[in-house]
Amino acid sequence: MPPHQVQVYRELDPDARQRLEALKRRIQDQFPERTRHYDVEWDRQGERIRGLEAFGELVFRDLWTALDEETRDFIQQPASTWQEDERRALEEFAAEQSRRFFGRTYVVEDLCRFALSADESGAAWCTCVVGGTGDGKSALLGPLLDRLRGADAFVLAHFVAMSPHAARLDTMFARWCDELAAKLGEASPLGANERRPLGGHDADEAGTRNRFEEEYRGLLSRVAQHHRVVILVDGLSQFERSTEARFVAWLRNGVPPNTRLIVTTAPGEELQTLTGRAGVQLLPLPTLDTDASEQIALAICQSYHRELNPDVLHELLRKRTRDGREAAGNPLASLQPDNIEWQQRIIGQYSGLGAVHWVKGEVQAALDSARQATQLGELAASQRPNDDEWLAETSLLYVNLGDILAKAGDGSGSIEAYRKCLAVRQRLASRAPTDGKRQVELSMGYEYLGDALHSQGRPGEAIQAQQQCLEIRQQLVSQAPGDAAPLRALVVTHTRLANLHQDLGQIKASNGHWIECHRLLSRMRNQGLELDPTFADLLRQLDKALGSA
């Protein structure tokens, strides 16, 4: 090997070389069965090292063997039920919150005392922890759950952000029915059909939810006769947007004696409903002190095996919000309101991370990242309500969140996300009614919503959304009759409407849209506009069906 190449592959620093040799010896001593020795040689003609490929193959086989040994028992286990999946998601989510918990130990202690307090006439039965997005409400309940499980109490817990289905009230009630029945030593009162993965019930959603709630209440009252019951619910404001959830109707009758309820929520309809109810006390979440903020920053860096520059940490901790409070007291409040590039970078990182998680099959992690990106986008947009580009970016974040929710099986959540996207785009279009770009975005917003409604078996509503999309795209075609893009988009909308009407048995309306598809595609062909293979094939089919050439 030429001398100048030797320096590339040899550690020249004596101290570093000694540490490397010591590391090699330690690895060989601790893992002799996993240590591989290999020979390489220098290829003079190719000026490269030869022999690494064989070593790589050895490493690959060793890794594959180790993975096979580690996962063999897991693969042979029977498929888990959705209830088991939900319980596993709860345990993982709670454990993660406990790891993220710093400071505010006195708040956990106060909540624990309240949860185990004796019944007294006129005393509170519910504590509602109130805080904004990113204040750390969820992080409180992780260690609180651990404390209560070690006490003389039976705990029912639910984190709305723990899984794609957890935002549904019926999911929560169904799982709690199983747990309460098990505590009583009984079988679940819910039939096998009712205990299927939620969202697939034959009964209407409201009827199903009411039945589950009734069963839950009956079981809860029986368990509370013999045990202190503590109910923890994190994220009231993140539940499905049903009337039952928005107005917290499931708590209209309170809880049985010997029961305590602790919930968290952000300001909104849920908080307004609870405020003033007899037996409900509000607990505004105090901000983190400087020491706790420092611990969080250092813990985050440690999880990535990095050290934070002390000067950078000092600047983070001394930062103040516009009202003079310590910005580090709220993880999201430290967003720099005037640094657009920095905010875009953070949001982009969350979105990109979510995409990676999704490709790897890590659904909950993908949802968490998408929700973080969306929350940051909402916060940034609220700080500059007149910045149309920020609003447009926010609408894309809603689309991304809706897509992930839909793929994860949360149809109602995806519809809500697409509705929010549409609301933003309606606002943008109203500000610039002659801006073709905004009209295109608005038409796509209606299309996203229509597709989501169709996938959830709501064709009537889907038709209304797609019809709005159709009217906008017809106008865009009239404004640019020689442009292929608006024509293609209009054809797509007609095909969607044709299929929707066909699903409803409205053959005449369906045929009308197919005829319009044929007219538009023929126009594109006559104008010499390019037809992609899908449109070309559709035109051939319509030519044949309608007797045209």
**Helix amount, in percent?**
55-70%
The count of domains is 3
What is the 3D form? globular
Biggest sheet details: 5 strands, parallel
C-alpha-based Rg, rounded: 30 Å
Structural class: alpha/beta
CATH topology of the largest domain: Serine Threonine Protein Phosphatase 5, Tetratricopeptide repeat
Mean pLDDT metric? 81
The span between the termini is 73 Å
Give the SSE string.
HHEEHHHEHEHHEHEHEHHHHHHHHHHH
Major sheet: order of its strands? 4-5-6-3-7
What is the percentage of strand-forming residues? 5-15%
CATH class of the largest domain: Mainly Alpha
Architecture per CATH nomenclature, i.e. the level-2 architecture of the largest domain: Alpha Horseshoe
Determine the number of helices (DSSP H or I, runs of at least 4 residues). 21
The counted number of beta strands is 7
Low-confidence stretches: 195-203, 330-337
Find the CATH superfamily of the largest domain: Tetratricopeptide repeat domain
Topology, pairings included?
Blueprint: H1 3-9, H2 14-30, E1 41-43, E2 48-50, H3 52-75, H4 82-99, H5 105-115, E3 126-130, H6 137-149, E4 154-159, H7 169-183, H8 205-224, E5 229-234, H9 243-246, E6 259-265, H10 269-274, E7 280-284, H11 290-303, H12 310-318, H13 340-359, H14 363-383, H15 388-407, H16 411-431, H17 436-455, H18 459-479, H19 484-503, H20 507-526, H21 533-546
Parallel strand pairs: 3-6, 3-7, 4-5, 5-6
Antiparallel strand pairs: 1-2
